[in-house]
Amino acid sequence: MKPYRLAARDGKDTIIEIVGNDGSCLIGEGYCTIIAGPCAVESEDSILTAARLVKELGAHILRGGAFKPRTSPYSFPGLGVHGLELLALARKETGLPIVTEVLDVRDIDRVLEVADIVQVGSRNMHNYPLLRELSRCKIPVLLKRGYAATVEEWLLAAEYLMAGGNEQVILCERGIRTFENMTRNTVDIGVVPLLKELSHLPVIVDPSHATGKWQMVRPVAKAAIAAGADGLMIEVHPHPETALSDGEQSLNGGNFSRLMDEIRALARLEGKKM
Amino acid sequence: MKPYRLAARDGKDTIIEIVGNDGSCLIGEGYCTIIAGPCAVESEDSILTAARLVKELGAHILRGGAFKPRTSPYSFPGLGVHGLELLALARKETGLPIVTEVLDVRDIDRVLEVADIVQVGSRNMHNYPLLRELSRCKIPVLLKRGYAATVEEWLLAAEYLMAGGNEQVILCERGIRTFENMTRNTVDIGVVPLLKELSHLPVIVDPSHATGKWQMVRPVAKAAIAAGADGLMIEVHPHPETALSDGEQSLNGGNFSRLMDEIRALARLEGKKM
Amino acid sequence: MKPYRLAARDGKDTIIEIVGNDGSCLIGEGYCTIIAGPCAVESEDSILTAARLVKELGAHILRGGAFKPRTSPYSFPGLGVHGLELLALARKETGLPIVTEVLDVRDIDRVLEVADIVQVGSRNMHNYPLLRELSRCKIPVLLKRGYAATVEEWLLAAEYLMAGGNEQVILCERGIRTFENMTRNTVDIGVVPLLKELSHLPVIVDPSHATGKWQMVRPVAKAAIAAGADGLMIEVHPHPETALSDGEQSLNGGNFSRLMDEIRALARLEGKKM
Amino acid sequence: MKPYRLAARDGKDTIIEIVGNDGSCLIGEGYCTIIAGPCAVESEDSILTAARLVKELGAHILRGGAFKPRTSPYSFPGLGVHGLELLALARKETGLPIVTEVLDVRDIDRVLEVADIVQVGSRNMHNYPLLRELSRCKIPVLLKRGYAATVEEWLLAAEYLMAGGNEQVILCERGIRTFENMTRNTVDIGVVPLLKELSHLPVIVDPSHATGKWQMVRPVAKAAIAAGADGLMIEVHPHPETALSDGEQSLNGGNFSRLMDEIRALARLEGKKM
Fold first, then answer.
1. DSSP 8-state class, residue B141
2. Which residues on chain B place their C-beta less than 8 Å from a C-beta of chain A?
3. How many whole angstroms separate alpha carbon B46 and alpha carbon B30?
4. What is the pLDDT of residues D179-198, one digit of tens each?
5. Other CB atoms within 10 A of residue B157 CB
6. Cys-Cys with A220: which of A25, A207, B140, C180 at CB 3.0–4.6 Å?
7. Among B186, D191, B20, B234, which residue's Cα sits nearest to residue C188?
8. What domains sit in chain B, N to C, each tagged with a CATH number?
9. Which residues of B are less than 8 Å from C178 in CB distance?
10. pLDDT tens digits, residue range B143-182?
């Protein structure tokens, strides 16, 4: 018997509505939903420029980190509450729904004031107190796979969210840790069809963290959609060379535009609405 | 400085012509070449049926193992020389070029009498005497990635082949070993764009060994082509449920037909000849 | 330059005093300190029996989980606050100092009332809010290695603790996740000398979680001390066959007694006080 | 049912006698047998110096590579047949039995003229034609674990050797490939007790390849013996700084002497003859 119950496939696919400032979008089987934006919110000017850019190029949802989990205590940890305020501004200005990460149970309320989707990052997939709190919230949760989590552990983390009553869970593959170190992580493309078989939850892929190199983002993004993913999470920065974090894996406007064109053609071929 | 030289990208892409009994095909950038057939040659009837099936459905090259590397000394090791004879028959009957594996330096001459491409399997990627012998042959070599080999080690294995004068090397990703065990291996889709950047050699993907589950073969095959692969190697068996090896990951005719239709549409979108 | 500073070796070794209800012990270079007890606190009777048993056999510190991180939301999560009360009782009764895990920043104060060492478990090594809070506490922290964390990431997690002013950090290797699945984890014995070279912090090993099999605990425990570890963390349960969690990797009294005898002889040979 | 039969434990332990030019030694349960010498045979002077050094310091068997598997076709491949002649000289001069690697089935006869133990290296553990040929020889085989082989695959490789009639198989753990890259490999110390439970074959450990750093060789060697290993394989070079390969992981005379002293004390404690 499978150790997860609520996350297990039972016939129907879960499709989640994400409501922004003006309008909404859907994530799930049959759709191709694009989340884009910078790794971190860096300043008012930079997040507004990025938000307008990705909106104009067709992204459905804006990403941006206010609270950043950083391996070193000396790295830029994000703007925190001020970052949330800037995201609220970008939300109002562009109408795009917002996804942003929460690290600390004590920040949940503040994040919920701004976010339309709350992200649980790879390093918090096993943070059970955080999952339990979010299971009591009425907000979609984007649950990234732990960087060395098995598919079963990942689905059990989703189960934590669902067991408390929150059924709006989006699974996001972001690459796993292997012996190969020419890329930042190894994107496990096979989990896309595997999760579609095991679960009814939407599955998206983040090719930016998965590869760590902007040159690889476009081909891996296309692979994800061809494999059946319901969407993508892409790091886009107006000027990647000046980004405070993850510049190497961020697309600039031109590259994101090209990616969107190719993804649109692919989505059409696959019969996915975008 | 890169430790490999001849395998390193230098501007042009290598395109390899494979000549069968009547006609030929190309492998490399701009093409989408399909290799298909059973894991092992099992009998005259079964290999001929499989060969006709994959030819009819549009495969360009027939695969079939006469010498099989098996983890256990008690498993079916392939039909050996008799298997080669049956492959020769299938080659004559269908006109399809043949790819088959060689395990032992002492078998190279016999394999070369039949094969149009020689396969070096995953477990022999580090078999340097075998690579050195093949580097002196005038035959294309399909070099599978070692199941835990880094990209650099893989390109150095290609370098072994090229250093002796054989420039006809095809790289084949077939999944790597990771902590995840719900799938047989983890297909490293990112190596497709990575190899295209580092090397001029053709890159194909084997989604059958990579996943170990026939249900996952079609989505992962599509992912490979969308990521930029130059072709696929697919296990097809007329009756997978009776296969002596790898039945779980083999497509039957109906599923291979569906895969070919979808790959054709994708190849067209990507501007690849097929 | 190394990305960690405070955790980096600078000549002297850190030796940490652990103060229990009557008396204290030291952890660090030159000592061999044994932490033992059950995976989880299950009942008053069971924790007191276990505490008396490990004390009698020579353990220096009692372990026992009140808050348990569990992969499934349906597994026994520990007794929580009541478990802390039972640990306080065992502390009072036996005089042994207590180490217990904290998962949630909101539980830190309550855990600090009882614990003499706070444990950060493998799944929380990247829980930066938790590390930041503990960095402001005046209590030794036992920092388990993330199950797929590199040595550098682990030392940076220690750096988080130290950067806020808490210098009492004990590193605990508990096995890493690899492709091998005959054991629960793969104990990375090489990190013991590696950490001794890179850092001044005490290093201990948990052979119970690392192997997942009680039969392997004794040999791996001895390996750890022979490799230079400053101590061990061992799961001991009066009746492993009835344990609510981790029974398979727990030693009973007889096996723990034998382990202690052999560790004592080894510590003497290595010139370590025990 | 276990997939291996002849390699499976059946009560008694296999103890193998290794016969050199004058005298012999035993490998197996109850003994602590030391194999030492340089990575590669480099010259007459250097191998004789190394052989005398390790003999004087108490090694039982001399190691030295004549045929070297190298990742790059441009690296020093060993002296080949001339290397074998130099090993024969060292064997005659010191009386030490010789272990050396064979890569190519066509070299087996020549290697057998000199070697007292034939080594199958990590990259050839899956080279089934080589294993089958060696299974027909009357010579002990030191079978290194494939760098990413599971314990089951490793025991099945031993089964290949035994299935042909060669029962003199020595298992050698040499580290596995993981995500950690601060060390060359991760030594899987837990396999020592695991193999002792599963199999009757002798188990030794190579801490030199396992760690890749000479500073870590001594502690890991001690860990191996404490965990129950029947011996060690140690790279020793009179002048590691000038070695043509693996200098970084080779001990010089002084360090090897210290290691031998500590191993002797440990073997005495463990009741192993040395």
1. E
2. 148, 150-152, 176, 178-183, 186-190, 192-194, 197, 210-211, 215-216, 219-220, 222-228, 265-266, 269
3. 33
4. 998 999 999 999 999 999 99
5. 30
6. A207
7. D191
8. 36-266 (3.20.20.70)
9. 179
10. 999 999 999 999 999 999 999 999 999 999 999 999 998 9
